[in-house]
Amino acid sequence: MIKKYDFLVIGSGVAGMSYALKVADTGKGRVAIVCKTTLEEANTAKAQGGIASVTNLKVDDFEKHIEDTMIAGDHLSDRKAVEQVVRNAPSQIAELVKWGVNFDRKDDGEFDLHREGGHSEFRILHHADDTGAEIQRGLMEAVRRNPNIDILENHFAVEIITQHHLGVEVTRRTPDIECFGAYILNPETNKIDTYLSRVTLMATGGIGSIYATTTNPNIATGDGIAMVYRAKGTVQDMEFVQFHPTALFHPGETHPAYLITEAMRGYGGILRLPNGEEFMHKYDERLSLAPRDIVARAIDKEMKIHGLDHVCLDVTHKDPEETKHHFPNIYAKCLSIGIDITKQYIPVAPCAHYMCGGIKVDLNACSSIKRLYAVGECSCTGLHGGNRLASNSLIEAVVYADAAAKHSLQHIDEYSFNNKIPEWNDDGTMTNEEKVLIAQDVREVGQIMSTYVGIVRSNLRLKRAWTRLDLLYEETEDLFKRVKATKEICELRNMINVGYLVTRQAIERKESRGLHFNVDYPPVTKD
To answer: Which of these CATH numbers, 3.10.129.10, 3.90.700.10, 1.10.760.10, 3.30.70.3460, describes 254-350?
Structure first.
């Protein structure tokens, strides 16, 4: 079956939905949002801490936010991208509010701002400790009200369509690769339909599920990055995987692990060993509010030194009622497993959280493939550099969604549907009965990545990961060619592709920088 949409949005987090809303009412055509599960399930909804923007001009300014971002990114960030996000943040916050998103305010009506690691000022807007869920709620309601947007839940994008599908040889040196839409698996028919589009936006989120433990939902399998890589698009900075320092340590909850927001350390939480001893003074003068890469490595080192499976976050010295007010969901979650955070330490450990790299885009969110935009965590804008500054991700998504909307609306009249695209051909394939193999391979990818390509790496570990992933790749590609495509095997393909990219680009970086720490390349000490 062939379907046509002027705007095809793959992904339903803040990036995809805000873009869809911006283009839907312009009279330029219909919009489809493709969700691999439901509209509610996205990385956005898991974001607790907040969204960064300069709003208190009495003490804060753009230059401070820009400098904080550059420092956190180990000066690998693209300054133009940083300036674009920081300077456009306030107007995009206003747009979120217009769409119905609520942020906490003080009695005088001003935003109630938090401070998080790496920020020099209080500039984090939030909604209690479930900011992402509130943004997702507000945008979902706006999207569902919009008559120009079709929501395709439980549909899975298998591949983007390029000249390759017309029989043209496409390589990484092909100068004019063009995206004509995507092949999408329909769960009701179990058939792969052809979706032709004039413009396609990739907003598929992160890659956390390639690790054994992650704060991301199970759907975070790097689909968009893998699809674009297979289509010969440019993918960059994949070695920079951010491990959140403080996920709740609760064996059995690994996908997702429950996040203990960085705002809790901004609030005054102190990292301690289980015996009560502080340790961050040994690693950074900013103590528990150092950037995430420093804190995660410090915790990892302390756990290894002392043979621990977790450290602790202490807020017992803070006012109990204030703690419950600021962090009601964390309080309730911990209480559900027998921990009263007003009286007891919170057991925490680092786990995979955010991908700083991804599909390389310019300031207009254009990828290296024409007519294909990428926004949100699956993209690499240059904002994050070697390490993302806390709460910069949600604001990056809405700022770049705005840039993508403006650019695509300016150019969409230049594009037409390519009616020569063939439908998906799965003749000669068999129904896949090898789900046990796929499930085992998914677990193996997580073990490989966590063991060899985690917080601390070495040349030997990376080589082992490369060798094992290569074997999985060969086996999976052979199986994919013989069976009918399912969501499960497509996700496995994507996870292996993304694991390979993280490993390869980690091997290529011959230094320890930002989130990439290789013991064979000790970091250069600064005077």
So the answer is: 3.90.700.10
